Amino acid sequence: MLLPESILTSDWFAALAAFVAINTAIYVTLAVVKTLPRIYYRDYLPRTYERSETRSIYPDTEERKRKG
Fold this sequence. Notes:
By secondary structure, the chain is an all-alpha fold. The chain has helices at residues 5-8, 11-35, 62-67. The protein has a domain at 1-45. It starts with a helix and ends with a helix. The model has no long low-confidence stretch (mean pLDDT 84).
């Protein structure tokens, strides 16, 4: 489909082209971010607590009891 030059040089067509360009850039950025692995910032911060006893359904081993 070919459009006349008068339409291609109009202000509303330029605004539409800018909107499409920005929209495309945003969706490309979102797609790239979605494919990257998720980063959990809490993994890199020091832990503020540590349990004194395990909450596991399995009993503590002797090593664990001596350590704690």
